[in-house]
Automatic annotation (TrEMBL):
Protein name: Lipoprotein
Source organism superkingdom: Bacteria
InterPro entries registered for this protein in UniProt: XAC2610_dom (IPR058087)
Organism: Flavobacterium ginsenosidimutans
Amino acid sequence: MKNLISIFIILLLTNCRNATDNVSVKKDLKDRVSGKEVSQTKIIIPVKISQPFLLNDIKCIWKQIDSISGATTLELRDYKTQRILLTHSDYFKSENDFNEQDYFNEHFQDLNFDGFKDFLITSSGSSAMTDMINIFVFNKKTKSFEFSEELSDNAIEEKDSINRILSTSSFTIDNEIRKKHYFNKNGTLKYSEIITRIDLSEDDSTSHYKNNYEKVVNGKVVMAKEYTTME
């Protein structure tokens, strides 16, 4: 009988010790997890803010937010109200820092000939063929910039301020597309002429092209014709 009681006491003490050990293990694990969470490194996203500058009679600032992926978000804000006038995120090509005067000469130009500066910036494609000049036109009523899909293109060929014509172009492996956008005095787009030129040359002696011409008004083709040229 005494032996049975002794065995019972030994088992009871062993179970109590194991329980204490388990609690200790759990506490250690909790402490380790807790410690790991505290030591995690916070990722800081670089943000740059320009000095105030005057644009279209509005005191503005630029805000540039760089991401881990390499893309950049640009925000143009009203300096007094902090209202966003323009925002755009992409992989950009720019030769100048936005705190330099050359940056504003490069990216703020009157592209629809209404006397107000518009915004343009080139997105980086996989090649020169897939680069895109994004054009944002200034809206005088809302005092903000609106993206123009019609005007955005691969390259700007000419700005004819006398006749108010913006000429742009793009190209693929098979053809070249040339556009001329005609504006009235208040900067409204009257119509666009689009010529898609396809090279039909069979040798190097003479260049032979097929040209598809379209006149577009308010997004609709109102005239189309096809003709060939030799160069």
